[in-house]
Structures are given as structure tokens and as C-alpha cells.
Amino acid sequence: MSIRQITIIGTGLIGGSFALALKRRGFSGQIVGCDRKPVLERALKQGIIDEAKAHPVEAARASQIVVLATPISGIIDLLKRLGPSLASSKTLITDVGSTKAEIVKRASEIFGKHVAARFLGGHPMAGKEQSGVAYADPHLFEKAPWFLTPTESQNINVGVCGEFVGWLGKIGARIVIINAPEHDRLCAWISHLPQMLSTTLAATLVDEYGSGAPLLETSGRALREMTRIASSPYSIWRDIALTNKQNLSDALLRMEQELAHIRENLDTRELALEFEKAHQFKKFG
Predict the structure, then answer these.
(1) Residues in the chain with pLDDT values less than 70
(2) How far apart are CA 124 and CA 14, in angstroms?
(3) Are 96 and 124 a contacting pair, CB within 8 Å?
(4) Residue range 96-135, pLDDT digits in tens
(5) Residue 193 belongs to what H/E stretch?
(6) Is the dihedral of CA 114, 180, 125, 237 positive or negative?
(7) 64 with 4: CB under 8 angstroms?
(8) Same domain, residue pair 167 and 206
(9) Which among 6, 42, 202, 235 is least buried, having the fewest CB atoms inside 10 angstroms?
(10) Is residue 9 within a helix (H) or strand (E), and if so which, with residue range?
(11) Which strand (E) or helix (H) includes residue 122?
(12) What is the CATH number of the domain that holds 46?
């Protein structure tokens, strides 16, 4: 086994779940966690990590894989901080950021011609509306897509990188290879837009009925499902909006146009045509 130690910087929901998933699937190496002291204490107590380090550079030392599982702004900052100390090593850095173009760009600037050996962009399409290590789940990634965004000419199936990809398969993730710009455009539609719609619906209902109205208690399943992710933390979505602004803006504009079309045709045959068109989407599910 060439991967003897993995460092996870950010041992919250995603980082903690990844550590638990590795252990569940038989990873026998050392897992080092790096986070704030209370988070690390809990992660150690729950057996999620084997060792705790507060300083990222110290935590990454001697690891073959370093997973950056922080918000996007933290990932970019960590690339800058870790880059100089790991540039000449054989350590592979990967991340779980929900947008990829800006992260891959920064990694390419930091590692230059060595970027293919030092960095692999990643994004697991898994999560919960709750955040934090308390919600870590070893089954979180089972059957979930895990996007990988290799740099040009990067072979992800050899060396430490290949072994890491193998572990993603072992924990049940479905590997999806895609370039960073196309990833960001796709995720604007399939992930980021749904979050903004859920947030908008919940916020509008608060405006209309007040925060104390028993809406969920009196509503049906549709409202509960559509507002479930509205409780997702702004701290995560702020960075997503900032680093995928154009794609998300385009998707929101297209949705606004579609909503306006429906509003203007509530009493015409056009509404029926919209329902018929929407029913085609189930064919892809």
C-alpha cells in the first residue's frame, strides 16, 4: 500500500464522512485530521481520525494524500499555504469544493508544470442540510457521483492518484470525469440553482406569513421536500455563489423567464404544455 497516511483538512460533514468511509472499507493507514480544537476533539472521540493536528503544514507532513474539505475560500487559501511545502514532495492534494474552475486555476498557478502530479480537483455530490462532524456518515458517498476534474494530460489511474481513485470506488462513489468549466456550468443547474430556489421559496414564505407560521405542520409533502435544503449554511453557499457567479446568474435568469412565462399563461393552453414538457424530465430519472 503506497498510501500509508491521509490528511483531511476540515473534518466536518464531508471530511469526517470520508474518514469513516475509508475505515469502514478497510483502510489501515493513519488518518490525520486538521481543524479547530473542538472539532478535532470530537473527531478523535468518535474514532473518525487517528491523530489531530491544528496546523495545516504540520498535518500534511508525511501524508501521501491531503484532502482539502473546507469551504472554497479555505481551499484556495490552503493551496497557497501548502503549495510551497509540498511542491517538491510526492504528496497529492485533492479537494471537495463545489466549484472547480477557480480552484483548478489556482492550483495550476501554484504548481505550474508539476500540477498534474500534485493536484487533482474533486467534488463529491453528497451532503446533508446539516453540517459538522456530528453528522458524519460512513455511507454518505455510496452511489453518489464524485466529480474529478483532471488537468490537461493528467493520468488519474497511475501512482498515488490511481490508488486514491481506487479508494473512491471502494467507498461506493461513482467516478465522473469532467473538465472544470463544464463541471461548474452543470452544477449551477443541478445543484446550485435548486439551492437558490429552495432558499428563495422559504424566505418568501417567511415574508408572507412570518417565521412563526406553522407552514410545515399544515403543508403537504411538496413544501417539506422543496424547503428541506433551505437550512443549508450560508457560509458554504457564499463561496459557491462567488466562484460560480456567471453560470448561476445565467441559470437564475433562465428560471425567471420560465416562471414569468408560466405566470402569464395560467389560464391558457401554454400551462398544459409546460406540464407536458416537465413530465419528460422523469424519463431521465
Answers:
(1) 1, 87, 129, 283-285
(2) 9
(3) yes
(4) 999 999 999 999 999 999 999 999 999 999 977 677 888 8
(5) helix 193-209
(6) positive
(7) yes
(8) no
(9) 235
(10) strand 5-9
(11) strand 119-124
(12) 3.40.50.720
126 and 207 belong to one structural domain: no
| pLDDT of 104 | 97
SS3 of residue 264 by DSSP: helix
Clarify whether residues 151 and 189 are in a common domain: no
pLDDT of residue 134: 85
- Among residues 178, 199, 231, which one ends one of the domains? 178
Encoded amino acid at 238, one letter: R
β-partners of residue 9 are: 34, 68
Same domain, yes or no, for 199 and 159? no
Distance CA(280)–CA(285), nearest Å, equals 10
Per-position DSSP letters for 95-114, written without gaps between them = E--S--HHHHHHHHHHHGGG
Cell 501548502 sits on residue: 82
Residues 162 and 201 grouped into a single domain: no
- The size of the chain, in residues, is 285
Domain check: are 187 and 86 in the same one?
no
- The phi, psi pair for 124, rounded to 5°, reads -75, 130
Which residue, chain included where needed, has cell 443541478? 190
Return the C-alpha cell found at 168. Answer: 473512491
**Residue-number span of the structural domain to which 187 is assigned:** 183-284
| pLDDT of the residue at 1 | 56
Q: Which of these three, 140, 156, 178, is where a domain ends?
A: 178
Grid look-up 453528522 returns 135
Query: Based on the structure, what is the number of domains in the chain?
Result: 2
Distinct helix (H) and strand (E) counts, the chain = 14, 8
- Written as nine digits, the cell of 108 is 495550476
Tens digit of each residue's pLDDT (9 = 90 or more) over 27-69: 999 999 999 999 999 999 999 999 999 999 999 999 999 999 9
Query: What is the end-to-end Cα distance of the chain in Å, rounded?
Result: 38
